[in-house]
Amino acid sequence: MGYIRTLLSIALVCTLFVPIVHAQNSVDSEVEIVNSGGLGTDPLLLIPIAMGLIVSLLLWRFLLPASLSNLQVAFEIDDDFYEVHRLTKTRSDALKIIRPRTVFFGVILYLMAMAGIMILLSDILDDSLIWNRGPTYYQPALILTAILLSIPILLSPFISLYAQISRKSASDSIVTFREFVLNVFSVCLIILFLLAPVAYFGYLDLNEVENNTWESIENEWTSNDPFNPEIALSQMVCIDTRGIDSPLPVMESITTQVGCSELVDLVRDPITREWEEDYYGRWVSNQERLDINRNIDTIDWISIGLLVFMSPTIIAYGRIMGASWNVIVRNKYRTMRGQKTPIDPDIPSILKRVNATILVLFLGTMPLAAINGISTLVWTKLENPENLRYILDLGGIIGNSLLMFVEGNEFLKTLVDLKSLSFVLAGYLMLNVSVVGLALIFEMIRNLFLGGQVIGGVGGVVLGAPREIRAESIVQSRIIAFGLAGFAGYSVLLLIMQVYKEWAELMPYSDSIGFLTGAQVELLLLEGTWNFIAAGQGIFILTWLLSIGRWRTVGITKFDLAPEERRSGAVRTHDGNWIRDYVMQAARQDDLGALRRFQDGSIDADESLLRLERGRAKMFEYAMRGLWPNAIEAAKTTLAQQGGNDDDARMLIAVGHIASRRLDASKMALKGLLMEDEEDEPELIEFISEWMDPWADRVDEDDLYDWENEPTIDQIKELQSKIESWDPVSDIGHIHRNRLAHIALISSVAQLRAQRRMDEALELSVGLVRRYPNSAKARIACALCSLDLGNWHDALEIFRDLQLNGPEDPRVKALGSILGLKADTSEFEVALAVGTVADKKPWLDQAPCNPFVGLAIKGGLDEALNANAFSIAHEAVERLTAPIIAPTLLQNFVRWGLLPLIWLSMGAIILLETGDTSASGLVAFGLVSGHIAVVRFRNQTSHQVRHRNQPLMVKMARRFKKEKVVGDLSRSPIGNHLLLSGILLE
């Protein structure tokens, strides 16, 4: 498949450069455009359309899948250590990855752009190589070409901007139709805001050019009669067409048409190195002069507007290339040397090494080319040199200086042909701008998948976290669609500008700008191309300067290029199976100490398998400790290591999002599960996420009936019934005898302790220890209850036993700190037990279901209530305060009685003062409607479900504070943060 890609690339390059020979032989040939009625006399005019269709099909079935094969993704497992996973290996794998609808849209736009280019270029080739005639075009084919090219070009900036400002996480990828419409509207609005200043200043400049032209016409009026605009517009003048700065200067010394037509300069063609006569005088009327100046200025501002319109794509291109430069150059250099790399995972063939050499040449000189492009544009704008076309055509300041240096050195002139050097310099500009731009689309897609911007750059366009790229197909689709649809239009636009600049005499409608000379058209296209080049290179050089500091980091970063192969082999052996069984058993037995020992201990097993299972152990550890954001991140790493095929990790991510109050993200995390439809766990998690959003009104009594005798649902029902009276006693142990009921009863111990029912708490905890002797949490509850009753020796004995079995368990360390032993307050449980407020505050976001962090900090009562309202139940019982949020009678009277009367009274006052019924009615209606809208808006905001500053919990906290329920942590039994829990899922 590499041969096909190489042959097509060579064909494209030849297609671009073959017309040069024909152009030199067809200077006097006129472009012929055949209308639709001329097809009967020459049916061969349809050949370009057929060629474009055939090439597009070849691209779709062969080149595109081949270019997207061997896609890899790298994600960090440890500091400066990355696992590299292969997403696609063969063409069939690539066809699967471009099959989703979102990707197919990007593929269609890319194929449209390439089909349009191939129709146009094959139309040139068949005339020059086959039929040996002047350039002939079929008008319907040109219309089709314009449609195929304009759609990708017009959509390119919208797609690029949408990708850069949209949400990147897979958990946020579910977008409703309303959100999609709003996003598209926002993108259109941003682009309109970008174009508005260009249109405004262009309008002002156009008026200024017109005024300056009229002022010049008045100054040139030589008649003794008063100035007559109609007569003045008919007068003839000689204008200088050597520049493109409007208004064009007038040769006042030339007063005849013959003298004007004889104005000539000897100029050397930048490419052919031949001297040519440039007749720059043009005899026109003042009316034509006015139109020419207007049109030149309009074209100039249209060029600027096009640059601004394409700026989202240009910015994205510069950001990606600047942030990816370190990784791409290093990896392509290794490919050039025949080594395997994260981008090219297989041993490179000769063709791959040649392609890598070409890319290293262009990418290695890209910073120098960027500096050259920016400095050339700035210098030419400031100085406006006479040889402007010469400088721009030869690659800017560096290219022109190189040519002048060779031309001035007699020895080098004998070694280097100046004409060939000029051709190479101009060809380098074209290749760098257009052909290499099209080729780099696939390199950018590879790098976006690999995560090169994250590994070795700063300021790039990150469309998804590397772990989600590996695990989530929706993120993979987003990247491919962005790469194809976002950059195809931009690259094709630059290619068209280059083709029209080089071979205008062969191109259709190139003579439609009749008010400009060929040299002026070429100079306008050159300036427009250089504007695009300098803009992209400016973004590139800024990002490159920010990222170059990571050059050495990329060099020392280690990559595991084949973890999946070794891991799958180890799992098939007995040694691989016992590791997974050990981790799962420790998690089921609530053995945090065993999980921690496994993460830090020395184990003789395959390193890739150990990394996977240690990540799984970390995932379970964080979840068991209630550190849900950390658990989600660890689960994403485990999911990525498994290629997205790990149901335990997906369900843990979903539960973590529920705990963090991100209900939509929870539903999104469940997509991609491998479980059979009859499995209950995913459906249960989704049901709970819907149940926790009561305002969505998706759950009714019939749904609850379907989950009868389900432990999770029964526990939530019990919590709902208990919270009405702050009842600390749980009856779930009489219904279910599983781990969920065990944890719920331990939480009941915490509530009994808080309400000073110490004997009942101790009795319950002892019973739990008898039922589950190996439960560290039950034994910690027993120790804390012993402390409450003054039995220090019993508590110390329990602690010693726990420390002997699991000293690594952070809950055991926290119990030791409560007993007066020294412990590290960087541990979450220890910080809540004996740490300062500064030690506790960082854990507020990391433990969304532990209320004691919120109680420990100022203004955190609403977060504590959101985490677990039972944390302040003992204070609420003392103050006889029920957990009810409802407006009082006075509030309802003010809201719906007093304020509406005031608004109606204001309307009545206006009626009495003015007698205007319409005005008074309008004011009264507007005030009442606004009042209703504000009330509805406030009610709607209270329906938001989130962890921090949830409006409903803020109202609840205010009500509790009025009732003197302040959530004083000093009034809560020490160590309750180790016992209290809320909603439980098994």
Using brief descriptors, characterize the structure shown.
single chain, Serine Threonine Protein Phosphatase 5, Tetratricopeptide repeat, mainly alpha, 986 residues, two-stranded parallel ribbon
Tell me what you see in this structure.
The protein has 986 residues and is mainly α. Among the domains are: 413 residues, no CATH class; 189 residues, Alpha Horseshoe (Serine Threonine Protein Phosphatase 5, Tetratricopeptide repeat), CATH 1.25.40; 78 residues, no CATH class. Helix content is 67%, strand content 4%. It has a three-stranded mixed sheet. Strands 1-4 form a two-stranded parallel ribbon. Helix 7 runs antiparallel to helix 10, helix 24 packs parallel to helix 26 and helix 42 packs across helix 46. The longest helix has 43 residues. The relative contact order is 0.07.
How do the strands and helices of this protein lay out in sequence?
Blueprint: H1 2-17, H2 19-25, E1 32-34, H3 47-67, E2 72-78, E3 81-86, H4 91-97, H5 101-130, E4 136-138, H6 139-165, H7 177-219, H8 229-234, E5 236-240, H9 257-261, E6 264-268, E7 275-279, E8 281-285, H10 286-309, H11 311-336, H12 350-364, H13 366-383, H14 388-393, H15 396-408, H16 410-415, H17 418-450, H18 452-456, H19 466-471, H20 473-502, H21 518-547, H22 551-556, E9 558-560, H23 563-571, H24 574-588, H25 592-600, H26 607-625, H27 628-641, H28 647-659, H29 663-669, H30 681-691, H31 701-706, H32 711-723, H33 732-735, H34 739-754, H35 758-771, H36 776-788, H37 792-805, H38 810-818, H39 828-834, H40 837-840, H41 851-856, H42 861-867, H43 873-878, H44 889-914, H45 917-941, H46 951-962
Helix pairs in contact: 1-3, 3-4, 3-5, 5-6, 5-20, 6-7, 6-11, 6-20, 7-10, 10-21, 11-12, 11-17, 11-21, 13-21, 15-17, 17-20, 20-21, 23-24, 24-26, 25-26, 26-27, 27-28, 28-29, 28-30, 29-30, 34-35, 34-36, 35-36, 36-37, 38-39, 42-46, 44-45
